[in-house]
Design a protein that fits this description.
Elements (H helix, E strand, L loop, with lengths): L1 H26 L11 H24 L1 E2 L13 H16 L3 E4 L6 H17 L8 E3 L10 H34 L1
Parallel strand pairs: 1-2, 2-3
Length: 180
Amino acid sequence: MVLIKKNVLIKLGIVMEMIFCCTLNNGCVETVQRESPDKSLINAEIINTLNDIAMQNAIVSQHTLFPYHFVKNGEKLNQLGQRDLTVLAKHLEENPGNLNIRRNNISKEPYQARVTFVIDKLKEAGVEVERISVSDGMPGGPGMASEKILTILERQEKATAAARTGAADTTLSTRTRGKR
């Protein structure tokens, strides 16, 4: 009988321990609700990514650093210039080509300092500068010679003047006819 009581007590103890563990385990469980992602934030990120890609494509297509990319009257790049040069360096590292650094109205020494600074930055970025051409070229390509543009403008101006003169003559002649 004592043995049966002991056996029952052991089994009762085991059952109590199991109940205690289950209660403890259930008490520690947190219900985690999955929040659905905010679709407007996802859409905004997609748009930002697409804008970044478009911006990088425009920088590569233009392949030009302008005076506004540099610190005023200095050789170092400002924040915009650093961003654009980073994009250009990534592209030029794998795709050698032309890089334009526009001179505009600065003298030879500051311009040359800017060119040297940019070339040094390209070297630091891993670009083989021997494979690229740096010049004071037009953005996006060779452009059109200014003489040709002046010729085109002159032709357009003559055509416009001729059209005005012809229009004035017809206006005059219709007025004269109407008075008769």
